[in-house]
Amino acid sequence: MTAKFTGTDEFRSARFDACDLSGMSLRDCDLRNLKTSDCWLVDVNISGRIRNLRVNDIDVTDYVNAELDRRHPERAQVRSMSTADDHRAMWRTIERLWTDVQARVDRPTPMCLPPARRGSRSSGRWSATSTMPSSTKYGPEYRRPAIQSKPARSAAAYGS
């Protein structure tokens, strides 16, 4: 059975030497000041808030951010928001993006997600229907109050 650790600081400042950590999964973890030396990083996928990422002593943060901006131009739109009009425009962008996702999930093609699988989770992630507030299951009357009532996290919670 795989060991599971939730909400612990048991490993803060820990040191692992000559350990087999293959297959390890980290979700929503604080990895600030993480250092790996002489480690095998093969088939690694890193996702999250990334700053000062160095690979073999080369800072690749700007490269990663430029590629993410190329793939998702709305990131630049978020960074440039300063007025109420900017926020309203961003909200329209978010709604357009959700509409595009909904269309991809519902598209009747051989590669589409079958309706019976849309509620299935994969690798512990949310299902397609769980993440889609704009689906037919939840209309605007449901979506907006839920978003407005969710408490905001402070910048400190993200390690700024």
Summarize the structure.
By secondary structure, the chain is an all-alpha fold. It is 31% helix and 2% strand.
Description of the molecule:
The chain has 160 residues and is mostly helical. 31% of the residues lie in helices and 2% in strands. It contains four helices and two strands. The chain has helices spanning 61-71, 74-79, 84-106, 140-149; strands at 54-55, 58-59. It has a two-stranded antiparallel ribbon. It is extended, with a radius of gyration of 20 Å.
Task: Quickly list its features.
single chain; 160 residues; mainly alpha; two-stranded antiparallel ribbon; 4 helices; 2 strands; extended
Poorly predicted spans:
134-150
Residue fraction in strands = under 5%
**What sort of overall outline do the alpha carbons produce when their principal axes are compared?**
extended
Q: How much helix, percentage-wise, in residues?
A: 25-40%
User: What is the gyration radius calculated from CA atoms?
Assistant: 20 Å
Largest sheet: 2 strands, antiparallel
Order of helices and strands: EEHHHH
Strand order within the widest sheet?
1-2
Number of helices: 4
Number of strands: 2
Structural class: mainly alpha
| N-C termini distance | 36 Å
Mean pLDDT: 79
